[in-house]
């Protein structure tokens, strides 16, 4: 048998890869640039400690208390009525005394007071004061810590309202922050464990609910 070999045929050339046109490249680059520019425009850089820092926006009771206490102290000192005058006014007409000397509050009125008396035996950091010129049936006490209770200092200026805070917890914490600021500035420098038998001059505020029982939160204390 005779082999018939087909003559060599030239191979077809492989198709060339399509090269992107310059116009296509320009469009792609421009689109990417626009996307990056949009991302940059929509991105806010927040510096630590700035007003935009979420940590700075969180309410700090101690910062608030430190800021507010000096003006509250000034307010109470300027408005304080001496204990003898107040006792006479309350005995004569409680409502009139509140109107003249107090700051209206949701529970009772807050009254700034100035008193000088001899400290008795403390109970849980609360000293009774024997005050000359005040009837014996009126009990006057001053709290010295370690825990300072109540919101008298928050409420006494009359311009710190619930609506200024996010919720009831912040409103309550604001009062605690002011109390701590007062304690750090006024009570911590004093040896409050040894006041018994000493003459103590106090400027502070109390909530008038029971006219025979005054619990003072101080803003000034002088020990003689």
Describe the structure.
This protein has 224 residues and is of the alpha+beta class. It has two domains: 21-58; 59-223, OB fold (Dihydrolipoamide Acetyltransferase, E2P) (Beta Barrel), CATH 2.40.50. Helices cover 38% and strands 21% of the residues. It contains seven helices and seven strands; from the N terminus they run αααβααββββααββ. It has helices spanning 22-41, 54-57, 61-79, 83-92, 94-101, 152-155, 168-187; strands at residues 81-82, 103-104, 109-119, 126-130, 139-143, 199-208, 213-223. It has a five-stranded mixed barrel with strand order 3-4-5-7-6. A hairpin with a 4-residue loop joins strand 2 and strand 3 (109-119). The protein is elongated, with a radius of gyration of 38 Å. The N and C termini lie far apart (140 Å).
* Secondary-structure class: alpha+beta
Q: Please name the fourth-level CATH homologous superfamily of the largest domain.
A: Envelope glycoprotein gp160, DUF2291, alpha/beta domain
Query: Low-confidence parts, pLDDT < 50 over ≥5 residues?
Result: none
What is the overall pLDDT average? Answer: 86
Can you write the helix and strand succession as a string? HHHEHHEEEEHHEE
End-to-end separation? 140 Å
- Strand line-up of the largest beta sheet: 3-4-5-7-6
In CATH's first tier, which class of the largest domain applies? Mainly Beta
CATH architectural arrangement of the largest domain? Beta Barrel
Measured by DSSP, the beta-strand proportion falls in 15-25%
Largest sheet: 5 strands, mixed, barrel
Helix content: 25-40%
Tally of helical runs = 7
Q: What would the principal axes of the Cα set say about the shape?
A: elongated
Protein name: DUF2291 domain-containing protein
Organism: Paracoccus caeni
Pfam family, one: DUF2291
Keywords: Membrane, Transmembrane, Transmembrane helix
């Amino acid at each position: 048998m005779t082999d018939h070999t087909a003559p060599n045929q030239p191979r077809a050339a492989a198709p060339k890869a399509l090269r992107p046109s310059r116009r296509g490249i320009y469009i792609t680059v421009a689109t990417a640039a626009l996307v990056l520019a949009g991302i940059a425009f929509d991105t806010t850089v927040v510096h630590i400690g700035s007003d935009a820092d979420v940590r700075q926006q969180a309410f700090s009771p101690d910062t608030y208390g430190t800021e507010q206490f000096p003006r509250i102290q000034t307010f109470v000192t300027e408005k304080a009525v001496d204990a003898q005058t107040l006792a006479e006014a309350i005995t004569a007409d409680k409502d009139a005394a509140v109107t003249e000397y107090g700051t209206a509050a949701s529970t009772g009125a807050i009254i700034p007071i100035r008193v000088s008396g001899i400290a008795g035996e403390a109970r849980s950091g609360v000293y009774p004061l024997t005050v000359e010129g005040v009837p014996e049936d009126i009990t006057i006490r001053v709290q010295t810590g370690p825990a300072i209770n109540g919101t008298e200092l928050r409420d006494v200026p009359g311009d710190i309202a619930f609506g200024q805070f996010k919720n009831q917890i912040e409103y309550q914490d604001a009062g605690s922050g002011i109390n701590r600021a007062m304690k750090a500035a006024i009570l911590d420098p004093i040896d409050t464990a040894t006041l018994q038998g000493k003459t103590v001059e106090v400027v502070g505020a109390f909530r008038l609910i029971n006219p025979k029982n005054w619990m003072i939160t101080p803003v000034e204390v002088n020990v003689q």
